[in-house]
Amino acid sequence: MSLLLESIAKHVSLSAQEQERVLALTENRQYSPKTIVLKEGEICTHSFFVTKGILRNYTIDENGMEHVVSFACPGWWIADMYSYLSQRPGNSFIEVNEEAEVLLLSKENQEVLYAEVPKMERFFRILIENSLVANQQRLMDNMSFTAEARYDKFTKKYTALIYSLPQKQIASYIGVTPEFFSKMKARLLKK
Length: 191
Description:
47% of the residues lie in helices and 24% in strands. It is built from eight helices and six strands. The mean pLDDT is 94.
């Protein structure tokens, strides 16, 4: 069973025929590290389900600083949700961190799935609800937790990725500069 079907099975039960239809409406792609699969200003026409590798979603501010919004490792979805849902130009980038294989699901094919496999609408509703909760929690954490506490939460959420991600991307995700992050990690190691 593919990783995608395993992910879906955690939330809804599909028949063999429905599973085949889901797979038929996705497109398998492989990407090299540093490939930018979505640029700021483009319309996000696909969501990406990661089967191998790591992708990240980030923005760049007026000073050229990157701000990591999210990471996606195998079994996770990633997209510029504003752009994907509104079909308007987005304000973020999606980049491949390391050799990756993904399944692409176009917005058009997602709508086909909703019509032909109604359980998939429930599946995506659950994912969007979980994402909304996680984003709200991250926002609250950024307002009320120390950098050390945010890093601790990050290490628990992305345990498998800690050693695969560049330190500057982890720093960006938790909202600190690479220099501060380096000093903070040195302090934590002394404890």
